Amino acid sequence: MADRPVPVKDMRLLDVKVGQLPNWLATRDYTPAGFVTSIRGGYDRFVKKYIDVKKPGIGGVAMMLTAYVVLSYMWSFDHIKHDRWRKYH
């Protein structure tokens, strides 16, 4: 038996072909609740893959810490940039 074709709305983004991308984007939920649901799902997948494991390691925690450091730097970059060009004489 051949596998049945998966509907475009049930595919993951990595499985979508370039020609199917507009149809896939049209099936997404763009309401605020849809955004919250997708962010929560991504967070849950991250926790399941890197945090809640049988043999925990430093990888998941290191990724979260790195993301925090990068975001903090991006948020304060304007302040850092102005301090860099300031003359101290």
UniProtKB/TrEMBL annotation:
Q: What GO terms describe the biological role, i.e. biological process, of this protein?
A: proton motive force-driven mitochondrial ATP synthesis
Q: Does the keyword field hold Membrane? A: yes
InterPro entries found in the cross-reference section:
F1F0-ATPsyn_F_prd
GO molecular function terms attached to this record? proton-transporting ATP synthase activity, rotational mechanism
Q: What is the membrane topology noted in the UniProt record heading this document?
A: Single-pass membrane protein
Give me the segments passing through the membrane: 57-77
Q: Where in the cell is it found?
A: Mitochondrion inner membrane
Instruction: Give the UniProt entry's GO cellular component terms.
Output: mitochondrial inner membrane; proton-transporting ATP synthase complex
**Pfam families found in the cross-reference section:** WRW
The record's keywords, sorted A to Z, are: Acetylation, ATP synthesis, CF(0), Hydrogen ion transport, Ion transport, Membrane, Mitochondrion, Mitochondrion inner membrane, Phosphoprotein, Transmembrane, Transmembrane helix, Transport
Quaternary organization: Component of the ATP synthase complex composed at least of ATP5F1A/subunit alpha, ATP5F1B/subunit beta, ATP5MC1/subunit c (homooctomer), MT-ATP6/subunit a, MT-ATP8/subunit 8, ATP5ME/subunit e, ATP5MF/subunit f, ATP5MG/subunit g, ATP5MK/subunit k, ATP5MJ/subunit j, ATP5F1C/subunit gamma, ATP5F1D/subunit delta, ATP5F1E/subunit epsilon, ATP5PF/subunit F6, ATP5PB/subunit b, ATP5PD/subunit d, ATP5PO/subunit OSCP.
Q: What family does the database annotate?
A: Belongs to the ATPase F chain family.
The entry's function note states: Subunit f, of the mitochondrial membrane ATP synthase complex (F(1)F(0) ATP synthase or Complex V) that produces ATP from ADP in the presence of a proton gradient across the membrane which is generated by electron transport complexes of the respiratory chain. ATP synthase complex consist of a soluble F(1) head domain - the catalytic core - and a membrane F(1) domain - the membrane proton channel. These two domains are linked by a central stalk rotating inside the F(1) region and a stationary peripheral stalk.
* UniProt protein name: ATP synthase F(0) complex subunit f, mitochondrial
Q: Give the organism, scientific name.
A: Podarcis lilfordi
Q: What is the lineage of its organism?
A: Eukaryota, Metazoa, Chordata, Craniata, Vertebrata
